[in-house]
Design goal:
Chain lengths: ~280, ~290
């Protein structure tokens, strides 16, 4: 067993300070009102006035924004994950008549990884516009239009993770199940799904965070403030509260806290997920 | 790979993903690429103009600035990767509170770059930020540069900020990679009398080659698309001095009379750069599908 060198606590402590300082500072700063921020930037706030928080909360319709982000996330993440799960199963496990089909699908989906969302932003706008003419809820300025786009965004990474995870399941398990009379769907869901659980939960968490924080597509497709998702509102705050830095900070902190809570609760899973992916990478 | 299933079921499983991919990823890319070679007057159909958009692009001083800024971010981010390795090494030592360090350093990674950008605004802004205020107070006024919003420092500041944000992720990634390394080599080296430094440079680093390659490519592709921090801190800087490829594209798209050929040409440039990084990675690793 390695002895713990007490010196290790110095860099550890430094790292903790380094990584948390901006948030701590932002938090402290958020209790200042607009004027105090300008006149005295580096001191601690005069008073911890929670009233300011309530004011900012009302001004920003935070609950509405939260609800919007929630709708988009709840719809797009499970949908995307389900689709990718099915196709990954086909790629990883099922032989195709034409031998190279599986590889073709695999690399096709994987190639999406080097597509930065900015590259296809404009096309997405017009696709959504045309779709909107036929299928209204999927058109512009609708939260639902974001759902297929986000689901599609999860395809490359999801395929990578799922296929590696499925490939690492020993084939004997599935063969045994089939011998016992399990149907295809039975194998798929009762064996594969359960055994891939760590990857699935890691992917779930990453997808949720990715969709929750997504900005470019949402900003392009949503116009009405009432339809905004949280990140949009953040960017909006910077111009809206352009001189009222206090309000901005309070809004940031209020948006930050649920995310941090989510993270702290699930952190073990998240970090284990990165560890798993690190092994695959 | 030999579960027997009816042919149509095999195809059916892939179909939903395929459709989604075709509509929302593949088609947009092709559309974008084609537009890069066309000119589209407002409300009329686009027509082919060959490389004209690219001439316009490379003659555009803002594009050159954007390219320069993006390059700085990409190279800077790659150079800062070793810091992630250091963090990973730190996390590898089991001490009380290691988990806390892991969690706290990973936290900024999961939050939107807008959030971290805005929070950093209050540290780094020459007017309102703590950094310069602090430097002034302790008399180091000379060091109180214009970290953002000035002439030249913005891309460097943003690189540091983005690397800060990603540090936890890198740390955990390297931590995982380090944990995976087989212990026997190290033991053999210790028996042979190797020092820690020798073990580090001759065993650890070479074994991390694959991990480094992977991380570097992801960092390059990520850096190419970097624009959110820039946008939040400076909205493109005084007179576009701190645009990146991404933010400039965004800017043109936002302005109503946007030159679509130009944005598409830029998109193509970004795409080619990303693809090159990916292809380089594939070539260097030459991974085969059935291992």
């Amino acid at each position: 067993m390695p002895k713990v060198n007490k010196l290790i606590y110095i860099p550890a402590g430094l790292i903790i300070i380094l990584m948390s300082f901006p948030f701590v500072w932002g938090f402290l700063l958020s209790f200042k009102d607009g004027i105090e921020i300008f006149t005295d930037p580096i001191s601690l706030p005069r008073s911890f006035n929670f009233r300011l928080y309530i004011d900012t909360y009302k001004e920003s319709h935070l609950v509405l924004l939260f609800k919007n982000s929630l709708i988009v996330t709840v719809l797009s993440v499970p949908l995307g994950m389900l689709f990718v799960f099915l196709s990954a199963f086909s790629i990883a496990r099922l032989d195709q008549k034409i031998k190279w089909m599986s590889s073709f699908y695999y690399y096709l989906f994987l190639s999406g990884m080097c597509v930065n969302i900015i590259i296809i932003l404009r096309s997405l706008y017009f696709i959504t516009m045309y779709t909107g003419k036929n299928v209204a809820p999927l058109g512009l300025d609708s939260l639902y239009s974001l759902v297929p786009i986000y689901a599609a965004g999860g395809i490359p990474f999801g395929t990578l993770l799922y296929v590696s995870a499925m490939r690492s399941i020993p084939i004997e398990m599935e063969e045994a199940a089939i011998i016992d009379g399990c149907s295809l769907f039975g194998v798929m869901f009762r064996i594969n799904f359960v055994l891939c659980m760590p990857v699935i939960s890691a992917l779930f968490i990453f997808s949720v965070l990715g969709v929750w924080n997504e900005f470019p597509v949402a900003s392009m497709l949503l116009n009405n403030y009432h339809n905004y998702t949280l990140p949009l509102a953040l960017a909006f705050f910077k111009s809206e509260f352009s001189r009222d830095y206090g309000s901005m900070l309070r809004a940031i902190i209020m948006i930050l806290i649920p995310q941090l809570l989510f993270f702290i609760i699930f952190q073990k899973r998240i970090i284990d997920g990165v560890v798993t992916e690190g092994i695959k990478g | 790979m030999h579960i027997f299933a009816k042919w149509w079921i095999k195809q059916l499983l892939v179909v939903p993903t395929l459709i989604l991919f075709l509509i929302y990823t593949l088609y947009p890319i092709i559309d974008s690429l084609m537009l890069a070679f066309s000119h589209k007057p407002p409300f009329k159909k686009p027509y082919f103009v060959g490389l004209d958009n690219f001439y316009g692009l490379f003659n555009d001083p803002v594009f050159i600035i954007a390219l320069r800024n993006t390059t700085i971010v990409v190279i800077g981010s790659v150079l800062l990767i070793p810091l992630g390795l250091l963090l990973g090494l730190l996390l590898n030592v089991s001490f009380r509170g290691a988990t806390a360090v892991k969690v706290i350093s990973f936290a900024p990674n999961i939050v939107s770059p807008f959030l971290t950008g805005l929070v950093f605004f209050f540290i780094v802004d020459p007017g309102v930020g703590v950094l310069n205020g602090f430097l002034d107070k302790i008399g180091l006024h000379a060091l109180a540069f214009k970290w953002i919003g000035g002439e030249r420092l913005t891309p460097y500041t943003v690189t540091v900020l983005d690397s800060w944000k990603g540090l936890g992720g890198l740390g955990v990634f390297f931590y995982a990679a380090l944990k995976m390394m087989p212990k026997d080599m190290f033991e053999a080296a210790t028996i042979d009398g190797a020092t820690s430094m020798q073990k580090f440079w001759k065993i650890t680093i070479p074994m991390l080659k694959e991990t480094f390659k992977f991380i570097t490519v992801l960092t390059i592709i990520g850096g190419l698309g970097s624009y959110q921090t820039f946008y939040i801190l400076t909205s493109g800087g005084p007179h576009h001095k701190s645009e990146t490829l991404g933010s400039y594209m965004f800017y043109i798209m936002q302005s109503k009379g946007g030159d679509i050929g130009k944005t598409s040409a830029m998109a193509l440039v970004m795409f080619i750069l990303s693809m090159s990084a990916a292809i380089l990675y594939l070539h260097l690793t030459r991974k085969r599908l059935d291992e």
